[in-house]
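Quick log. Single chain, no ligands specified.
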Amino acid sequence: MEQELRQFPELSHQLRVVEVLGLSPMPPLAIAQHLGISLIEQLQFALLQPDTELQSVMEEVGVQRFAVVELEAYKVLAERFSSRKIEFL
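-> predicted structure:
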């Protein structure tokens, strides 16, 4: 949504904040294991060591970098939402 609002700031007038969740880790990238370890490692290397073309695209969309993280980094989300009832509109 942040990227969309950067490109189309006029949309912000049509939105309202329902709830603020606070600081959260960035959403993870997930790769299907059936792609095989070789391809997964190639993708990981490309994201962690981007060439100039990928760096340029990342800058365009506001991505500073990719990093390897441990599952522990997302524990805060599990704790935050484990005791809450989430309703879908």
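The chain has a mean pLDDT of 86.
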